[in-house]
């Protein structure tokens, strides 16, 4: 748990050290640099504390066991990883002990640790050393089990970070699907040749174009690249041209700042700015400058390895346009430019077929012409659900689509094969507000890759005071990750999925210094099963000597204040967490074919999603999650259907579409559902109120009719359990004949599982316990126990009746 002032009992790092942490399949090979560091550690061991001496002794023990394993031709990559992290964090602990004032300053930047910053700084070095001992103990136990024949594990495939192939829907290395991992914003400024930060343990994805975090005039690919005379800044351009063509990587277009010369020519250029987009995307000069930037950088990096994982066209874009939203503190959309206003009026002309009387009747206004239309932006939240709210919110989305379409078009003029994605925040989809200008479906369709920065939390966010429902049921908050990933994969099932800033380990409003490693394993496994091909975790900020990177020294005067507090209690202080991230990714890569088979499982039930209802309703996504949650524990992934999915994808990819609490849909959305029925599809409709209104709340005269399909319509209002049962019945014949019964002592399930045929007459089953309680599980085929169940990760046999602890992960092979 977090060490907060509000805790009933004051916790300390000493207490955290008592929490035993063990994990399966650990390992590691020392580099020459680490061997030198090891020698230095041993020479000074007599002057070091007892924890360091114990750790050094265990390193020797593990090395000896690794030699035995190598003699038997047993892969010891996992153990090599343990030793690498052990040595690094022993070095870090010594730096932290010698620089307690710096460490205390870092704790001061994050509210939960501020009051006791000195105590935490005092305790951190031994905390790190004891966590090193824990990962060494687990590594010793695991290699002993391998040597004794108790477990049989798959070798870890070696990733060649310089030879990655981007396939249609997977990344490939050595003719195998591969999942890449790294840290975002990693020890800023370190060259690719620095093996202390670019290696198989921390990852070797090169972060082109994000060498400095945006304070103002940074070295990212940004607005400052173009000078007033239209030429390019030679020094900034070298940040692009000097990128070595050796490692797979990505390029990031940073939109934060804006040069003074642009503001002199276009005083309105900063109006309509947002948190990470520091200019008006409707401004002609801004668009001209960014067109030049995109074309130039795209041309210079065409075919380079640094662009294999795509050009990230924006960092966390959003344009919240409602009063009293937290983004107003950062002057987001507090005023809009004349260009935005003019474009909105033109949008309204098209929307209303140039008939001002229709708009006036809808808005309850008396404008003489579209040129005289006025709307107060940001909007009052009380107007949500009214026609003006809908029109602005839809326009706000359409203008951002236009902006990103422009950028991508300019890039493809000079680099037609360039892959693109946008670092979309999944909470813009899963949470209720819709004034943010982001149409997640449209932008995911537009780009050639899926992009996001999904987060999870193990405790309630610091800015949330009241208990949340998930806390009583689950071990961590998985709603944003799972629901958004199932949506993204439904929209673009054949695209590579890049999480370029994974917030599974920490976030602005959540941190946990004694994070359990089984959570780390569970959440990375979940994200990968749900589509993630590569992730860059937030964040690696240690320089090789153990000191915080340069950005985190000094006055920490960042535009985004969250960065200043990001170091305290992060992965940079947790050897067990850093080690487990690499361990779980190595394990996932060892079974990558099985993971791909499971995650490409058919989605038989599609939950209908309407952006129209999401814009109009105050709690539409809260209601949608209730239905999504109810469908998430029955052995298959939940899918989504939208108007575009129904129109553009093969309807044979699913069995039924379920409509739940979706009152507002456009006529085109309604027609798409009717066309689906006419083509022989099945729809489950929860009530007569769903689909009953258009985007402006006007009653729809038409009702769905079955046509050539099957319409299951409920009178009144069917609850989620009734609808779930109807959906399961409608898909019974297309699902695998495998059942998993769960008893965790509560009325709700916690084990998310999937099952696919293995091509050998048996099945692959993946089970993740997301619940707070240990689950007693009963796994059957056709009502009978399988002939044999094998744990693929250990080679051990498993009974058909077994238990799975919270955060437990199992990958099983069932033989009938």
TrEMBL record:
Superkingdom in the source lineage: Bacteria
InterPro entries associated with the record: Class_I_gatase-like (IPR029062), GH (IPR017853), Glyco_hydro_42 (IPR003476)
Keywords, comma-separated and alphabetical: Hydrolase, Signal
Key word Signal present: yes
Signal peptide from the UniProt entry: 1-26
One Gene Ontology term of the molecular function aspect: hydrolase activity
Name of the protein: Glycoside hydrolase family 42
Organism field: Hirschia litorea
């Amino acid at each position: 748990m977090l060490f907060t002032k509000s805790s009933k009992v004051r916790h300390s790092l000493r207490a955290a050290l008592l929490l035993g942490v063990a994990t399966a399949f650990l390992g590691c090979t020392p580099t020459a640099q680490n061997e030198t560091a090891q020698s230095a550690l041993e020479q000074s061991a007599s002057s070091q504390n007892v924890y360091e001496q114990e750790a050094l002794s265990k390193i020797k023990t593990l090395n000896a066991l690794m030699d035995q394993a190598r003699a038997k031709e047993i892969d010891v990559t996992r153990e090599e990883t343990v030793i690498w992290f052990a040595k690094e964090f022993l070095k870090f602990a010594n730096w932290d002990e010698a620089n307690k004032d710096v460490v205390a300053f870092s704790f001061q930047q994050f509210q939960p640790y501020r009051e006791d910053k000195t105590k935490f700084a005092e305790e951190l070095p031994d905390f790190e050393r004891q966590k090193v001992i824990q990962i060494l103990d687990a590594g010793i136990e695991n290699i002993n089990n391998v040597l004794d024949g108790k477990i049989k594990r798959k070798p870890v495939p070696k990733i060649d970070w310089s030879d990655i192939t981007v396939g249609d829907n997977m990344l490939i290395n050595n003719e195998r699907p591969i999942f890449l991992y790294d840290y975002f914003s990693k020890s800023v400024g370190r060259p690719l040749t620095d093996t202390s930060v670019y290696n198989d343990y921390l990852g070797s994805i090169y972060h082109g174009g994000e060498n400095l975090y945006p304070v103002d005039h940074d070295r990212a690919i940004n607005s400052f690249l173009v000078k007033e005379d239209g030429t390019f800044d030679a020094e900034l351009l070298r940040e692009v041209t000097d990128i070595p063509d050796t490692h797979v990587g990505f390029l990031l277009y940073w939109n934060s700042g804006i040069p003074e010369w642009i503001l002199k020519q276009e005083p309105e250029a900063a109006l309509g700015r947002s948190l990470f987009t520091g200019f008006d995307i409707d401004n002609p000069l801004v668009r001209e400058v960014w067109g030049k930037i995109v074309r130039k950088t795209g041309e210079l990096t065409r075919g380079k390895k640094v662009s294999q994982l795509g050009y990230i066209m924006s960092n966390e874009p959003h344009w919240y346009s409602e009063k009293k939203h937290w983004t107003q503190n950062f002057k987001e959309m507090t005023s809009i430019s004349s260009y935005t206003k003019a474009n909105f009026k033109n949008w309204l002309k098209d929307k209303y077929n140039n008939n001002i009387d229709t708009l006036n009747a809808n808005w309850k206004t008396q404008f003489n012409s579209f040129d005289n239309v006025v709307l107060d932006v940001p909007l009052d939240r009380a107007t949500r659900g009214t026609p003006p709210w809908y029109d602005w919110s839809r326009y706000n989305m359409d203008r951002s689509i236009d902006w990103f379409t422009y950028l991508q078009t300019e890039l493809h003029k000079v680099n037609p094969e360039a892959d693109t994605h946008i670092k979309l925040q999944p909470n813009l989809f899963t949470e209720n507000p819709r004034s943010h200008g982001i149409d997640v479906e449209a932008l995911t369709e537009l780009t050639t890759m899926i992009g996001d920065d999904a987060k999870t939390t193990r405790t309630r966010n610091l800015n949330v005071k009241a208990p949340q429902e998930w806390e009583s049921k689950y071990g961590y908050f998985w709603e944003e990750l799972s629901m958004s990933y199932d949506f993204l994969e439904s929209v673009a099932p054949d695209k590579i999925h890049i999480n370029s800033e994974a917030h599974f380990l920490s976030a602005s409003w959540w941190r946990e210094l004694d994070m359990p490693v089984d959570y780390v394993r569970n959440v990375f496994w979940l994200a990968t099963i749900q589509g993630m091909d590569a992730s860059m975790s937030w964040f690696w900020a240690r320089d090789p000597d153990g000191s915080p990177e340069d950005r985190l020294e000094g006055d920490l005067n960042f535009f985004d204040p969250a960065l200043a507090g990001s170091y305290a209690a992060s992965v940079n202080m947790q050897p067990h967490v850093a080690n487990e991230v690499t361990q779980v990714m190595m394990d996932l890569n060892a079974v990558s074919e099985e993971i791909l088979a499971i995650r490409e499982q058919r989605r038989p039930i599609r939950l209908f999603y309407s952006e129209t209802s999401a814009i109009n309703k105050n709690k539409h996504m809260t209601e949608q999650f209730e239905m999504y949650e109810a469908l998430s524990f029955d052995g298959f992934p939940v899918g989504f259907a939208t108007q575009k999915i129904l129109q553009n994808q093969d309807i044979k990819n699913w069995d039924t579409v379920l409509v739940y609490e979706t009152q507002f849909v456009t006529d085109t959305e309604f027609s798409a559902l009717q066309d689906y029925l006419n083509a022989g599809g099945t729809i489950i409709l929860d009530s007569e109120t769903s689909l009953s209104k258009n985007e402006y709340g006007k009653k729809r005269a038409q009702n769905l009719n079955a046509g050539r399909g099957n319409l299951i319509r409920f009178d009144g209002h069917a609850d989620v359990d009734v609808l779930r049962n109807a959906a399961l019945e409608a898909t019974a014949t297309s699902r695998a004949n495998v059942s998993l019964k769960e008893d965790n002592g509560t009325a709700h399930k916690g084990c998310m599982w999937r099952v696919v045929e293995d091509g050998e007459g048996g099945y692959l089953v993946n089970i993740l316990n997301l619940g707070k309680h240990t689950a007693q599980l009963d796994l059957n085929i056709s009502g009978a126990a399988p002939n044999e169940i094998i744990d693929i990760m250990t080679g051990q046999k498993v009974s058909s009746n077994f238990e799975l602890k919270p955060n437990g992960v199992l990958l099983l092979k069932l033989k009938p």
